[in-house]
Amino acid sequence: MKNRTGKTIVTLLAVLALLTGIMPFGSRKVEAATTQIVWEKDDVKNVYVDTRKSDHLSYSKDGITIAAEAESNGQRCLFHDRLIDITSGKIVFSCDSSKGRISQLEIICGEAKNFARDDESWSSSYSEGETHLVWKGQGNPEIVFHPSEYDEDPYMLNIQYVEKMIFTLVSEDTEYPLWVGGVRVTSKNKDDILDDGGKAKYDPETKTLTLNNANITNTYKRNCIYANSLGGTLTISLIGSNRIGNKDALNGIDAMLTPTVITGDGNLTVSDVTNLGIMDEGSSITIKDTEVTVENCHFGIDGTYQFEIDNSKVTVTGGTEGISNDKISITDSKIDVTTSYVGIFAVDNKISISGNSYVSADTTDSGAKAEKYAMVATKGFELDGVEIIEPEGGDIKPKTISDRERYVVVDKDNNIAQKAVIAKTYLITFKNDDGTVLQEKKTPIYETPKYEGDTPTKPSDDEYEYTFKGWDKEITEVKGDATYTAVYDRTPIEKPTPTPTPVTPFSIPKTGIEGSSPSYHLISLLGVCMLTIFLAKKHN
Fold first, then answer.
1. Which of 77, 104, 393, 456 is the S-S candidate for 70 at Cβ 3.0 to 4.6 Å?
2. Percent of the chain's residues with pLDDT above 70
3. Residue 42 within any structural domain of the chain
């Protein structure tokens, strides 16, 4: 059995680092280069609004929006090119998040005018006939009006003197603790992580990584996909056929302290990595409503907490261990594992199998000399609606393995099974067309039934002979009880034609004596006799 002590230490260290705050993982913001957007005087003159009804101003350009709200004494407060008779209100500048955020706003006027009192965010200065109002800070810049404090000049900013507005933008890039194909996922690249047209994209709101016919071979820390303390469940959504792995990679998917769900209408193949195909340290792995194949990896699917498979097809081939986790739960799924040492191993808990499930683990074909185990569970098995199909007469018994009592599948002689199949079975019946049962057998779900009896026959009748043609429907993999009925081709029976009785043809005799036959003379004599009788009767 694999030694899990080292992996446990890694998990404990990861938890400790997370709790103490020394681990450099988690989402974080990174400032990028700044850019500037300039509004000239013509843009500024577009800023006006009639506020007799306290309407709000909104004007946008280049991703920048200026919005104003104000109340007045009944006159127009923001009109054309200046502010008049304001009793209260403010102007707010904002920026589209795709452009970044406003880190500085500079308003330049051609004359010295009464802007606003200085505060922590705004400062004003006058130089060479120009007045500069500069804002720096976090959030959105605002100009708040307090005209009651300026009796001589009730407005704070006269738009007609504004020559220019200069917006300095900072693009903030959020980094997420997720790497795909060697690339760290950020708020900038999340919609096309690999720069290949969006075959890998990430939604930080739902923490969903979508793979759409992706082929991921590059690595970060030798992991093709790596997540560390994502702060929630990572969902890997599959579209189309996706592949992960290369011979230089250590692991295909490594989710550290991150519950992971693999799902979707597509499929995923993880292959040819030197260690683990799919791994989750300190959390859970769920494969739901999808198809996953792990091939030619040292260990197939591994974790230290819980592994759930629901309504999925999972195939693991090659390597020494197929599926290994503390607790393994399989529901309505088809599992095929072929490895050299251990097929399915619940390290510290149970193996649970239920519903329409077919679970096969085979270690017989390897050349390994060590004792091999098809299925092992430290705390036993929970079987609900399924049964041991192979070995025939098999059972689950405790055995001492690695100095610890564990439960294994054994054969009828109490030997540890190197191959085991546990599955839901259904009754498959083959009938002749007269209703006679030809074969009836309990067959595991997902297997394709096979008729093993003699070729069905049907006796001929007065008109037809019958030849077996096949079954009334296509034989498909088992999904429930099913009956197949024999059908026949019929061939008409050919009846012999009766031989007719020969008839001597009558011919008119020839005149003259030459060539006369005896029959001619006989007929002539008969005619003379009949004539004599006729004349005698007439005379009387």
1. 77
2. 74
3. yes
Give CA torsion, residues 276, 280, 282, 284, to 10 deg: -140
293 pLDDT above the threshold of 60: yes
Higher pLDDT, 32 or 449: 449
Give the integer Cα–Cα distance in Å for 246 and 223: 10
pLDDT tens for 99-108 read 778 889 988 8
Residue 2 lies in a domain: no
Claim to verify: residue 246 and residue 383 sit in the same structural domain: yes
Q: Which residue is it, tokens 């519950």?
A: 259
Q: Are β-strands 208-212 and 57-61 bridged in parallel, bridged antiparallel, or unpaired?
A: unpaired
CATH value at residue 485: 2.60.40.4270
Residue 482: how many other CB atoms lie within 10 Å: 16
Same domain for 62 and 134? yes
Band of residue 439 on the pLDDT scale cut at 50, 70, 90: very high
At 315-338, the pLDDT tens digits run: 999 999 999 999 999 999 999 999
Residue with tokens 């003699």: 454
DSSP letter at 265 equals S
Q: How many residues does the chain have?
A: 540
Q: Domain check: are 238 and 191 in the same one?
A: yes
Q: Which two three-digit tokens encode residue 114?
A: 């009464």
What is the tally of structural domains in the chain?
A: 3
* Nearby residues of 82 by Cβ (< 8 Å), 6 or more positions away: 155, 158, 159, 160
- Same domain flag for 162 and 104: yes
Domain that holds residue 476: 425-492
pLDDT of res. 379: 97
* Long-range contacts formed by 311-317: CB under 8 A, 24+ apart: 312/287, 312/288, 314/287, 316/277, 317/293
